[in-house]
YnfA family protein
Amino acid sequence: MLILPLYLVAALLEISGCFAVWAWWRGGASALWLIPGAAALAGFALLLAFSPAAFAGRAFAAYGGVYIAASLGWLWIAEGQRPDRFDAAGALICLTGAALILWGPRG
């Protein structure tokens, strides 16, 4: 299904956009980081609008689980901090919840 790649790319854009602000505000990076950061956040918002969910709130809620898991991937890959078992368990719970929200049977 195309929803997972869509959410993963949206998460990468959101995380990188937020990280750009973090790097500027808390990491001492140049304010020029805000330009690609803003573009990434705009791309994230546009991409999330392509979710096949019938309602925005449901799409955003389901995306939240993917965002949490992707953030832990960012933690490991970009920041060099390996997630621990509690991180992994929490992400699994969130992904299970996201799947229920997105694909749960509705009458």
User: Anything to note?
Assistant: The chain has four helices and no strands. The chain has a mean pLDDT of 93. The helical segments are 3-25, 34-48, 56-77, 85-103. Residues 53 and 59 are 5 Å apart (CA to CA).
